[in-house]
Amino acid sequence: MKRKLEDVTIKMFRHGLGDCFLLSFNYRKEEEKIHMLIDCGVLSSSKEAAEDMKQRAQQIKELTKGRIDILVATHEHWDHLSGFLQAKDVFEDIDIRELWMAWTEDPTDEFAQRLKEAHDKKFKIVRLAYDRLYTENILSASQQQAFQSFFSLFGVNNHEHIGEKESRTALAFQAIKNHNGIKKKYLLPGKVVIREQTIPGVRFYVLGPPKDKKLLKKMNPSQRNPETYLNMGLSHFGDNLYQALLPDDSHIQDAFTPFRKGIGVSQDRLVEYRRTFSEANKKYEVDIFEEYFNEKNKWRKIETDWLNVIGRLAIHLDNGINNTSLVIAIELVDSGKILFFPGDAQIGNWLSWKDYKWEVRDGSKSKSISIQHILARTVFYKVSHHGSHNATLDEDGLEKMIDESLIAMIPVDSDVAKKRGWIMPYPKLMKRLDEKAAKIFISDKDHEETNQNKDYHETIIANE
């Protein structure tokens, strides 16, 4: 007798700014229940956050009775993966059957590997530039905050871990990839995943990330001045910037100055003249001191102005990784209801979905499913990128979600976001969600349906 899916329970853990969703597919018999975990991370890398994530992981272990059938890792950001490193011991004690990732993690995909190399190089550029600026103590408070906001996405707290070869996010991802006995699956957009033997009555539509380079690079809705990240990392400029940030070497330094070899002098060679006027006993020493180290002339110094471009590069890298998010739409076949999980997908990822048709069987016939069909039947929306300004399409996104019973969940901590200069959730998006959704659960706010211990928000989607 075919197992019938009764409903799906969705839990959004309330542990700070980060994604951690547990889906339980409930069949008639309790032992037939299937568990899917989508991400498990928090932005903070503090000891307190690590302890909290261990408690969440233990909670997940108890709720699933030590078995996760499918683990979905959407993309390589700390606020989605940190728990797999912070609570590594707990997760190692859980039987995780399958790991689903985007094609961008596939070691046999040539483009995926080039993309990963570009990301790694950009991260190293930002890390080296920050280390230079930090060492020379020339960062303003706002610049320091901006850098820390960026590095927090890779598990770096203050100046610690800056010199590590890999980001801690990469280490977290590696921890789950190396989980004992786990089967790894790399998902391609436009495909449908069906597990009729293990999870009957459910279809998984893979929407993103796109394989199209132009769309993968598109972060913001502006067409006149599109935000990109891939160009910078693969350009000669990116390579030159990387070389210029390497430890001091005379031939490298000369190669990146606008003058012929031997013209000019590095600031390091002037340090010997950094002394008080009374200590300077020669006129030329006084002149050099006045020229380069007097506070009145500090505004004229341009030694580190070229590093200002690093901020933009960091934004490109952050947004670019968001756009590699694995996006899945989960269909409960009997009812046709869709549960929509876009990770942190941004505009380019969203725009790519209109190019696909998903082929499925309907009895003895086959039919094509479009993104319009998927959005129209969406009854649950995990709001992309914590409700930011550029991660939910309007006319071709939210406006197409027309089901009156729509439920939205937003994993966000607005206080944490505010401290980092982020507007999350975005007011205009919230206004429209308030108008369209029957229910909205926000992780940093209580809801009348919040479970008693308040560790997570929970909703049940009936398959009828």
From TrEMBL:
PANTHER family: DNA INTERNALIZATION/COMPETENCE PROTEIN COMEC/REC2 (PTHR30619), RECOMBINATION PROTEIN 2 (PTHR30619:SF1). It comes from Mucilaginibacter oryzae. Residues 32-91 form the Metallo-beta-lactamase domain. It comes from the Bacteria. InterPro entries: Competence_DNA_uptake (IPR052159), Metallo-B-lactamas (IPR001279), RibonucZ/Hydroxyglut_hydro (IPR036866). This is Metallo-beta-lactamase domain-containing protein. Pfam families: Lactamase_B.
